[in-house]
Design goal:
single chain, 742 residues, alpha/beta, Rossmann fold, Beta-Lactamase, Alpha-Beta Plaits, 4 domains, eight-stranded mixed barrel, six-stranded mixed beta sheet, 25 helices
Length: 742
Amino acid sequence: MTDDIVEFVAEDDADSKVAEMPAAHLWQILVVDDDPEVHESTRFALSDIELLGARVSLQSAFSAEDARQYLSAHDEPAVILLDVVMETSDAGLRLAKWIREDLKLLKTRIILRTGQAGYAPELKVISEYDINDYRVKNELTQVRLITSLTAALRSYQQILRLETSHRGLQHIIEATRSLLSSDGFRQFSFGILTQIGGVLNLNESEGIVVVSIPRDRVAAEPFELNDQSIVAATGRFEGLIARSVQEISSLLQRQLIDRVIKSNQHYFGAEGTALICRGQHFSLVVYVECRQAVTAEEKDLLQLFCQNIGLMADNMTLIDRLNQQAFFDPTTLLPNRNSFEQWLDGQRRQLFDHRLLLINIDYFNSVLETLGQAKCAKLIRQYASKLQGSLRDISKFFAHLGDDTFAAVIPGAVDKTVVESVLNQEVAFTGFNVHIMATAITVDLDEMGLNGAQLLGAAHLFMKDAKRHNRRGLKHYPMAALENGRRNIQLLRDLVIAIRDDQLTMHYQPKWDLAGECYCGMEALVRWPHPDGHWVSPAEFVPLAETAGLGNDLFQWVLERVLREYADLIAHVPQAGPVAINISGAQLHDLSIVDRFTACAERYGVPVSSLIFEITESAAIVGGIEGAIELLGRLKASGVSISLDDFGTGYSSLSYLARLPVDQLKLDRSFIQKIKEPAGVAIVRSILDLSASLGLDVVAEGIEEEAEARLLRELRINSFQGYLFARPMPMAEVRELLQGRA
């Protein structure tokens, strides 16, 4: 086998430049034949020939074994001219089989040649090994050789284009999924630059993203968006973030961006690539420095990508709004409880010598009644500003947890008198000074075996005690003070017995499909009839079980009882619909649930596809979002569906929603109660739009009035749960209800 690449170019200066052409612009053709004269005649026939706009680079192999060695060590050729008869009468056919089946060279075109017509392959071989052509050597004139090669190269070209399009479409799908999980509009905008660079195969993309808002929409857009402002930039443009387009130093680039905005069309040229992504309320203009020519396939992919970006852009600004509401207090713009809990969880190892400081304004309700909501909010803002300023030198984090409550993390060594001195503040208000008094407590963080949410819950209990016994002062509480009272201890003992002796029971609340006018499943709800005759609320005994480490025992009892009763139900009412089981925060981080659940479902013969696990927003986040995502992913992979319960009442962060593998949202009763108001309708419609964009079903729960159901039906919600349709009931009554409608 010869290792030299034979390039057929003229010797004169004009044509000698072709020899410098990159290998990508040469058709790589491998000649496999044991006759040296065939190689020479092929070289002669193809000298000075250009096929489909490119010259030919010939390589030679004089046996099937030579060809195997070459193909194993080099990139695939475009075409192989393959002799059928070499070492053996079928050496060429065996090589063709090896090329397709073992080496997996599926794009390379193969032209079989033979000097003996009697050795022609069967038709099934032509089809099975994807042979492009078959020729007898003495019939293969220069014209026929070039014709055959041109057809093979054109076929190879088309295969490459199809593969490029497939890769490009896959990139668009992955890019869309990646951008959809962006944590807010800024990250989304930076992601656009990264993904466009990927489509154009740029190692490092340098560019900017500009917001363009129609004049009649400027006032309606989020506070952080200004017309023709730069929201993302990379490379040498990075210093332009948050500045105006007019501050771009290059006049040509400014004019190019302006041209795209005015023409509403993409631009591809030597100056760079500028794309416009049109949203419902505003557009994004993306400028990327790209000196290389953009192919037709890349233009088509970018067109599709920009359409997707336009659809997602409006949703991303809504995510920013909801994130703002989820993590910052609207009155003071300080971090809220959600932010504080997350910060505590992330900083636990660094806070071993610090304390949580909780501050609560005294007699706040009286102040609110006297001043009214608007004036009271102004007073709170001024108090928050002074309090934050006074604590700035000693606090690591400062948050506004609610109307009258603030929190900070301070070093444990801070003198008590320093903290007491900042509690009471004089605030100038409407021409006179208002003296605000407050009560405070501290908790040692190094003692906490609790996460942020649990710690704040304990701190609020301590605050209630301080309000009763130490108002207007500062009191320190060790975590040991969190010991349950006598009633809780007795209730816990009773709960252990109730789980052991099967004293608990299950009720089920059917769901209603308004479009089909039928029941479409149910939610399982655990109930506890206490031996003394009263019903213990789940809101009381479920958290108690979690705190005492009985969460797994309670969950296993519920799982066994529900699947056993549900198996009996579907044996008599096959169309009963799926049953939903609630999972608490503790279970969301116990991977053994997957095996326990699948074993239980198999034991009772219940198809996993008929089961739904319901989680709450806060339960998914408390204890770590990553662990929840992993467990839910495993559950979903087993075949169950995942429903997000009480949506809108917890963290309401859509960056979490985009990451959680959920199939369904349950719209909380608090939204339903406001559905008769325009603002309530707008909020519900926004949630429905986002759910649709994420491919999620929506169930409205807590429906109690016909008017509520009618308004929700007008918003195209069909699945309902609430007392209007059915109350929670034992399984026997569910079966009777469903059979009555069969």
